[in-house]
Design a protein that fits this description.
two-stranded antiparallel sheet, alpha+beta, 11 strands, elongated, 198 residues, 23% strand, five-stranded mixed sheet
Length: 198
Amino acid sequence: MIDAWGIQHRYRDASGAERVVAPETVAKLREAIGEPRERPAALVTRPGRELEVEPGELVLEDGTRLEVAGRLPASLPLGYHALRDRRGALRRVVVSPGRCYLPEGLRAWGFAVQLYAARSRRSWGLGDLRDLGALAAWSASEHGAGFALVSPLHGVAPTDAQQASPYFPASRSFRNPIYLCVEDVPGAERLGVALESA
C-alpha cells in the first residue's frame, strides 16, 4: 500500500522477489518530502495485480463506476482511471501492460546521424533533408539498416542571437529551415542565378 506521502512500502524487484522498504528509509523519505501530499501520487499497476487502496469509488477510463472496498480488482482494464476515496481525495490509477508489444523480428540497427554534419558534395555547407533521405535509402538498401536516429530538427527561436546548435529547439510545431535542400525549393533556379551573378 502507498502511504499519504506517496511512498510504497513493498515492491517486487526485477527477479520477482518481494522486498520491504526499511522503516529508516521510509522515515528519511517522509522527512525529505515534508508534509503528506494533499493529492496522493498516481498508482501504477499491471493487469492481474490486486493492490490495497483506500476504500472509495473507481471510475474507469470508459466511465464505468466500481465500488472499491480497499483492494483494486485484478481484472482492471488497461487505461487511466480515477479513484476517489471516502474523504473525497482523487487519485489517478494507471493500468499499463508492463512492457511494450514487440512483434517477431523487430530487432533492427541504424545510424545515429548529426544531420548538419552528414553533408554530401552537393550540399550547401551542411547536411540537408535530401542528404538525410539519401543516407537512409543507402543504409537500408546496401546495409539492411532499419532506422536513422536523427538529432533534433525543430525550429529555433525566431530572434537575433540564435543559438548555433540543434539542441536549442524552440518549437515542436516547426522544423528548422536550415535543413531544407535549397535546390528543392520552388524558384531555386532563380536563386542560383542570383548567387552566380553576385
